[in-house]
Amino acid sequence: METTSSRSSNKKDPGWKYNSLKDPSKPNYITCNFCNKTTTGGINRAKQHQMGHLGNATVCPKVPQEVKEELWNYYNEKKSQKSTGSSGSFQMFNYLEDCRIGDDDLDEVELVEFNASGKRLLTAKSGAGMQGSGKKTKGPMDLFLRKPETIVQKRKESKMRQMSIKDSDLEARARTVQYITRFFYQAGIPFNVSRLDSFKYMVEAIGRYGPNLKPPSYHELRVPLLKKELQLTNDMLENHKKKWAKYGCSIMSDGWTNRRQRSIINFLVNYPAGTMFVESVDASSYMKTGDRLYELLDAFVERIGEKNVIQVVTNNGSNYVLASKLLQAKIKNLFWTPCVAHCVDLILEDIGKLPNIKRTLERAIFLVGFIYNHTSALSLMRTLTKKKELVRYGVTRFATTYLTLERVYKQKLNLRKMFTSDEWMKSKFYKEAKGKRATDVILMPSFWNEIVYALKVMGPLVGVLRLVDNEKKPAMGYIYEAMDRAKEAIQKAFDGNEEKYKNVFSLIDKRWENQLHHPLHAAGHFLNPQFFYNDLSIATNKEICDPGVKEHLLNGGVRMEWKLQS
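Predicted structure:
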């Protein structure tokens, strides 16, 4: 029996304006005011009949478009209130928050940096080079002031409250930053450049110089200043080399193909203080065989110093695997580590080949391609989604596929509304073969069910990909835990129904055993205090502490002891 509150709330439903209850003794039998069809599912079923293609109700042929829009708007409003921002009944398990990797997540790191960079350093009201009421002049003491790098770093670390700024100072800043803004616009500089430390150093240095700074000329930028910056970079490289010898380092190779179809490898060196780019090599003649690739890798290891290199990180191609075996045979204490981001992307690629997911991806790609290739369809879509796009780019091709699939699902109601609107049905595309196929896909219940399945399977793995591909924190000590939590998240998403995810787990395990189950990953997990002291049984875990891993740990320990003694 309905309560008083539910009755009053039902009367506010706009569906009652366009439907009638003929017999009060049969509250579920509702008659449409436009076509006189009686439905037996209450007011919600009657609204589905008038809204069109929501659920399995037949579509009312006489309902006006403005009534459709009113009912859809009411439906979307109620849906958003219930979900409080979640996409339908499907909520992706955010396992990375449970991992608690570090003190903050990648996005939070960027947010803190952005907020901190907006704070001004507290300064006195007088003194050479300081902000004051008088003119800004330079004197001999300016030579001894702190460097812009130091000031910017202090500003980042400072947690002091921002001082109140006079209106005159605000106006002066507004005029100044407008010139900077105009320079960005005229030169077509990406806004993200403003987050670079070098940009902040430049602004700070100009401010501390004072008025009448002569900007660098075209010739200065092109020749003498470029040579000077090259020399400064080489000096910095030499300083890094001394630390590589002291702490050890990792070589990372990043392969890509340029527009001329040349295979380029960027070589970078990483150690606890950070990563430094060393050189870029045209490796077109080396990529054909593992033997040739071994020659290239071996030459670079010798250049950095065999005693300095702890591991070499490459992708997982068969030529790299062979080259790594030859390299490890020559240098006994050297580790070869496959790129985890590449491994996870290969797992996603394997999952994308499963019949039901492959079919879903093909339909989604067709649908998105159709909308974006027809301006009128794209305009209608953007109107209904309030200019929210369906395509979102990720760190890899399959991450992009997942993110796009997720956006399509979040716009499910708006897309259905689009393909059942009068504007769409009156367009020329509605009668074309591709337009009919797009409409069929949107109104196909199985398509949306399979999207949910794909998101549940791929979501946690994209989370792992995001973790290992970030440049803020080293992920070596978290890979074991991240993969375990990803599998747990998939299992939880299907309520432990093994039939729904066993094929996915077999694909994950195949890549994990052959490529990701690496001694350094086990060592990183074992030596991570967050996991070791949280679960002391880790010391007896056979998977982590098998004889092979112990041997590698001992070798690493001997190497570490040698480093400390030398």
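Summary: The CA atoms of residues 165 and 442 lie 55 Å apart.
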